[in-house]
Design goal:
Elements lengths: L3 E9 L3 H12 L5 E4 L5 E7 L5 H8 L7 E9 L4 H8 L4 E3 L3 E4 L11 E4 L12 H13 L5 E5 L5 H8 L4 E6 L2 H14 L6 E5 L12 E7 L2 H13 L1 E13 L3 H10 L3 E8 L2 E7 L5
Parallel strand pairs: 6-7, 8-9, 8-11, 9-10, 11-12
Antiparallel strand pairs: 1-3, 1-4, 2-3, 5-6, 12-14, 13-14
Helix pairs in contact: 4-5, 7-8
Length: 289
């Protein structure tokens, strides 16, 4: 059965950083998807019923390096047709950047666009509806060049890597720490690309980049501020000289922190874009490195 527990965590004082760290901690306890409140006051998380443990959840919530008062309550969610739930409540066809139509396989009223992407998200997120995904899709369209190589860190549903291949990339690698999301990404790759397409989805974290040193012409990371700043030196190592990296998943007021971490990793700032106070920054690896 695909039964779940919906667990709502109240965060006091409100903090987007705490919500980000909490989601990372909960992923290790089996949680599969997360919905942070825009004001950082709460995080809604979903975990398969068979994996839910009050003790493990409490331990994950109280093991954070930041000070916060976190309480939680759970609600059992009986198994259902999750595609139908998305269709009714969350996921509607959209057009991103005037060029990319994003919809699910169960939608019938689909707008026409240059690129047509089918995403069946189930309990994994990344459909283009969130500002950060939209920002990153715009970066893909701007920076993908014919035959280029792409790494999509924290690929989620695989939407960015899929778009990169559609836009002309020659090869892409999507890396995802959540096994459920990685499986979902592979399914979405099959829905959108021919079997011969060179798009590999890998289960793992930034340590997986050790096999891809100097690989990427374009590096994508739509995760969160803390993970990006902690791992950006590894991202730089996976980039070719002259390559670009687009990062998102943080608020505009955190841009300075991300810029400092990127500069320490030898990356040069190129530009910033924002939607609804969510930011995306592009850096470049100097050709001399």
């Amino acid at each position: 059965m695909n039964d779940y527990y919906k667990v709502v965590f109240a965060v006091n004082p409100p903090s987007g950083d705490v919500c980000d760290l909490l989601a990372d901690s909960l992923a290790d306890a089996g949680y599969e998807s997360f919905e942070p409140a825009d004001d950082g006051a709460s995080l809604t998380a979903y975990v398969p019923a068979a994996l839910y443990s009050v003790e493990a959840t409490a331990e994950a919530a109280h093991a954070l390096p930041l000070e916060a008062d976190i309480t939680f309550s759970e609600e059992f969610v009986e198994g259902r047709d999750w595609n139908s739930e998305w269709e009714k409540n969350y996921f509607k066809p959209i057009v991103v950047a005037g060029k990319v139509a994003v919809h699910s396989s169960f939608h019938t009223d689909v707008p026409e666009a240059e690129y047509d992407i089918v995403i069946d998200p189930r309990m994994a997120f990344g459909t283009g509806h969130h500002a950060t995904t939209t920002l990153m899709m715009q970066a893909v369209l701007e920076f993908v060049t014919p035959g280029c190589t792409v790494i999509d860190m924290g690929t989620g549903t695989g939407i960015l890597a899929i778009l990169a291949l559609m836009a002309g990339a020659g090869e892409a690698v999507g890396i995802e720490i959540d096994p459920f999301a990685a499986t979902n990404a592979r399914d979405n790759v099959g829905l959108n690309l021919p079997p011969e397409a060179r798009l590999t989805i890998i289960d793992g974290d930034a340590s997986a980049l050790e096999k891809y040193l100097g690989f990427a012409d374009l590096f994508l990371a739509n995760i969160n501020r803390n993970i990006i700043t902690a791992d950006i030196a590894r991202y730089a190592d996976a980039m070719k000289p002259g390559a670009k990296i687009a990062v998102s998943g943080f608020y505009t007021e955190d841009a300075g922190i991300v810029k400092e971490a990127a500069a320490a990793a030898g990356l040069s700032y190129r530009r910033i874009a924002s939607i609804d106070n969510w930011a995306s920054i592009v850096f470049e690896k100097p050709a001399s490195l």
